[in-house]
Amino acid sequence: MDKAKFTKNMTGDRYQVDDLFFSRLMDTARTKVIPYQWEALNDRIPDAEKSHAVANFKIAAGLEKGEFAGCVFQDSDLAKWIEAAAYSLMWHKDEKLEKELDDIIDVIEKAQMPDGYLDTYYIIGGPEKRWTNLKDNHELYCAGHFLEAAVAYYQATGKRKLLDVLLRLVDHIDARFGPEEGKLKGYPGHEVIEMALVKLYEITGEEKHLKLAQYFIDQRGQSPLYFKEETERNGNGFYWKNSYFQYQYYQAGKPVREQTEAVGHAVRAGYLYSGMAAVARAAQDESLLEACHRMWDSIVNRRMYITGQIGSADYGEAFTFDYDLPNDTAYAETCAGLSLVFFAQRMLQIEQKGEYADVMERALYNGTISGMSLDGTRFFYVNPLEVLPEACEKDQIHRHVKVERQKWFGCACCPPNLARTMTSIASYAAASREDAYFQHLYLSGTAKAKLNGVEAEIQLTSGYPWKGDIQVEIRPEKPVAFTYAIRIPGWCQHYELKVCGAPFAGEVKDGYAYITREWQPGDRVELTLDMPVETVYANTAVREDIGKVAVQRGPIVFCLEECDNGRDLHKVYLPEQPEFEAKFEEGLLEGVVTVACGGYRLEGEESGALYTTRKPAKFVPAQLKFIPYYAWTNRTPGEMMVWIRQR
Amino acid sequence: MDKAKFTKNMTGDRYQVDDLFFSRLMDTARTKVIPYQWEALNDRIPDAEKSHAVANFKIAAGLEKGEFAGCVFQDSDLAKWIEAAAYSLMWHKDEKLEKELDDIIDVIEKAQMPDGYLDTYYIIGGPEKRWTNLKDNHELYCAGHFLEAAVAYYQATGKRKLLDVLLRLVDHIDARFGPEEGKLKGYPGHEVIEMALVKLYEITGEEKHLKLAQYFIDQRGQSPLYFKEETERNGNGFYWKNSYFQYQYYQAGKPVREQTEAVGHAVRAGYLYSGMAAVARAAQDESLLEACHRMWDSIVNRRMYITGQIGSADYGEAFTFDYDLPNDTAYAETCAGLSLVFFAQRMLQIEQKGEYADVMERALYNGTISGMSLDGTRFFYVNPLEVLPEACEKDQIHRHVKVERQKWFGCACCPPNLARTMTSIASYAAASREDAYFQHLYLSGTAKAKLNGVEAEIQLTSGYPWKGDIQVEIRPEKPVAFTYAIRIPGWCQHYELKVCGAPFAGEVKDGYAYITREWQPGDRVELTLDMPVETVYANTAVREDIGKVAVQRGPIVFCLEECDNGRDLHKVYLPEQPEFEAKFEEGLLEGVVTVACGGYRLEGEESGALYTTRKPAKFVPAQLKFIPYYAWTNRTPGEMMVWIRQR
């Protein structure tokens, strides 16, 4: 690995986004989700299950009396809120919000134990029991999320208080975990601290922070198995005793470098792989990168939904096996799709390959943002690709699938996760290194980057994802040579690329066009992506999708909804050569492109027999209307279907 | 209802079966299952989970010391064994077996409490708690099975000891349950005693026996709900508190005459409906018969697998909703298919309609006998219509589906249920009334019936189900006029019927040809059923089967197995006009007809992408081989599939 080739993600203060698509989501996160969650964290929402998260910290800080309440990982909800809010401050100053943050950070500081420990579940419930159940009790997980929050808030405001709290916590953890004699040989049951420690390392430059991340990654799954010993030593339960997973639920069945497939709880897995990629980059660890490649390959070539989602099963919220991608019983947790985004983002920092950005885009435009209603008030954990309301009500294996997004949850992992991703969307859109700027996503807005020593503005203007027109204007403070690398999406079969009006004839490699020249202020790059509506086929190994197609246009995956197409969507067939017509509907679903197509319904005889040797009556012509998948069930709830039968 | 039109089922001593198909199953039950189960009930099988059933009775009888062990309904295993063995004695004398039966009946008698109560769980564990949890503790269920056993043993041997034990138990129950002041207003959590009491009533003629059955049926689901009151009164748990079912798991959500669809635990439901039909006939209760019609319609027109199986879901081993018939996650318990046979048999006694016999035949030749290996040593609870071994191992929602039949279970409801059905198969094949003999199934053998006062032998000879040739010779002791009614199967589109060599020109009504004449000894009826291989379509409302066909020949449903057709059966397609070739293979699977057919496999590119806009490569011709469904996984275990995609 050549460290000089690593890229650094944009942050919101360096990429002022003004995007047709994501600005709405960013604003929804900022103006709806963050304020609502703050009320929720403070137990001020009438008729909602209480969060207790802020109360727990006040109790731990000695400011209030009471018992810990909520999930064992309740602290992380507050952490993710702080992180989401911090990112929003990078692109939208808000004194009231910053004051709220400072106030709660004061409380957090007071809650911290003198030795640096910070987890209200144990501080309130009995610190003598801390670190006795790493497998299930999420202390390192909460620490990881607070670390991410602290880094974000420090980056957004320059204020160190939360960061200092976290540095003390990390020192506490570092003193307790590691290869040295007398230290615990453990690692988190739910990963996230690994990638968080690398973020910290990037700020502090302290090797011990990277080393701790490395330790957690390399110790995982080593023999003797820590989780097994811990369970026996402390009399902890083991929920997965009779499961297929065993310790692979926690990705701990073997050392990560020996693992060959994405396994277990999908969010944990995605976070682990993100941490592995972060460490591989920071430590220039080739063999760990190889392990990342294996996991990436396992996911995107055999275990990922077309919506960029992962986690085929409700049981364990987990991966199952290759090509097992049921549409109607999928788990596809909002957080799981996000974990894949985090993984992709970190792989892109190491290797600028379009396949990473393609997957990141697939998840960000489809199966993750589907987790939030258009008005930002309701949320999905589970993002199915096919829904029959009656099944969700009456059949247990579909009961985790909801027909409508739900109000805030008591234990709300997904909504703040989505919020923090939306408020930091700029970090996914582009990255730069000394000599080059990489445009991963076509996010309209103006970025600032120092390229070969010269500050430059890079302004992107586009109607993406509804249009394939991408105009870039590059404005260095003075003429400077660098590479502007723009992604050519994997979904695009035909495109035109012009540089200052002339057809580009340079290198296109691994999904990026590398435009290297001396840039003059006002130089323009124009990329035009053909964006026809296309039918997508799944690998024939995918049982649930054989004989079916999905409809995609650009990065957007479409679906049929009952409110447009009637009931019994399983009877709908597309013709072999569908004639699609796409149109932008401004008034629909906050403005979307819809796709119309002539198709069929396979209709049987009215009240016919259950079984018959007579062929079911006929293919009846039917006009079909597809909407973007992410926007489903924002109107009248009903059936939904992504993979459609084809004649 | 015209009572004179009711039929009476054959018994084994009146129908000596010598059938190509069922004689093997009868002999397997008699020579393998019954002896093996006797060893199992006595805990004499090395390396097998102990049954404890006999031990429990010896402890209850004071013959041994110990605690109750096994399931709360463990007694019923012994009861079903006695019943199965008793039926076998009707057609195969066996002094050793009869001695074993007499000995254990002595023990049972000793175990009975002075007041008539009989259930070892409570006799050993605390009689003061008896009748406090009708909902879950199966006392009436065990009583019902013992009642069936007692009636069978009395009919087989004329010995009254067990019958007298049961008469005392029934008196005990009758004294405790009923509408009278001071009696419990309860009914069984698991039905079976209803139909058993009708069997008893047919022997004793005592109205109180019928009345008790009527009470249990009519009290079920009445307000205030007994199960709810009982749960609150006695602090019992309610497992289905958070379920969709609620009390409908027990078919107790409302009175049975108000229920409109088959619901809840499928075996319980099937037993209830059988009891309802039995009572409707015995009591000539028109409105109860209407309720039976509704349940029948709900099952066979919307909730039954093509194999004659019921129970779409593992959760609750239960019905789900209309047209929800998943093939790979089906529960389709062996006992559930049998319960449908019992229901059909009782409906046939009331109304001689071919649709009842068609369903009974469908279940008996397909989805019930699939529950036993050809050698009678291994058993399925769950009879799926599609199996992918990797899913059964790695995905929780498929884990109830087994790739191979299992050895005897500690709590073994299905194997003895199948055994008792096989040893009493004659009772399903034919029935008679004063003036008519009904041939429901084409079981080769010789029946004896008194028809209009004259004893007649009716001998049926056939190669069924492999051949459609059915010859009947009628031998009355002297010429006598009566109706010989022979079923014309619903699956048969063309047939030829001759009576004494002349084409039959009389009435064919509701699936039966009514041949009424003065029969001379040696008169012959010849029925020839065309038995082409056919493709069967499911109602297009069945999501899992749309675009697919099943292969059927005569009453036999076929399947593809991996060992004949390779892996990835989901890639297999049948052509629109398949050319089937059926042949009998004597050496295969104890002799079966197999079906060959040219088809296709939809093969993608080798190690292709997960998603692509390129159409998956090609339909590659493939030679397909189908075997009868019931015989699957008797060779190398692997994938199996009933519903096949069609181009």
Briefly note the structural class of the backbone of chain A: alpha+beta
Q: Approximately how much helix is present in the residues of chain A?
A: 25-40%
Oligomer: homodimer
> Biggest β-sheet of chain A: count, sense, barrel?
7 strands, antiparallel
Number of strands of chain A: 24
Strand numbers in spatial order across the main sheet of chain A = 2-6-7-8-14-10-11
- Output mean pLDDT of chain A: 96
- Kindly, what is the distance between the CA atoms of the first and last residues of chain A, rounded to a whole number of angstroms? 49 Å
Overall 3D form of chain A: globular
**Residue fraction in strands of chain A:** 15-25%
**Rg of chain A:** 25 Å
Low-confidence segments of chain A: none
Count of individual helical segments of chain A:
18
Most residues in contact: chain pair: A-B, 56 and 56 residues
Question: How would you characterize this protein structure?
Answer:
2 copies of one chain form a homodimer. Helices cover 35% and strands 20% of the residues of chain A. Chain A is α+β, with helices and mostly antiparallel strands and 647 residues long. In chain A, the strands form 3 sheets. Chain A has a 7-stranded antiparallel β-sheet, with no helix packed on it. A 6-stranded mixed β-sheet of chain A has the order 1-4-5-9-13-12. A 6-stranded mixed beta barrel of chain A has the order 16-17-22-20-18-24. In chain A, α1 (22-41) packs across α3 (75-91). The longest helix of chain A is centred in the first third of the chain and has 20 residues, at 22-41. Chain A is globular, with a radius of gyration of 25 Å. The model of chain A has no long low-confidence stretch (mean pLDDT 96). At the A-B interface, α12, α15, β15 and β21 of A face α12, α15, β15 and β21 of B. β15 (533-538) of chain A pairs antiparallel with β21 (611-612) of chain B.
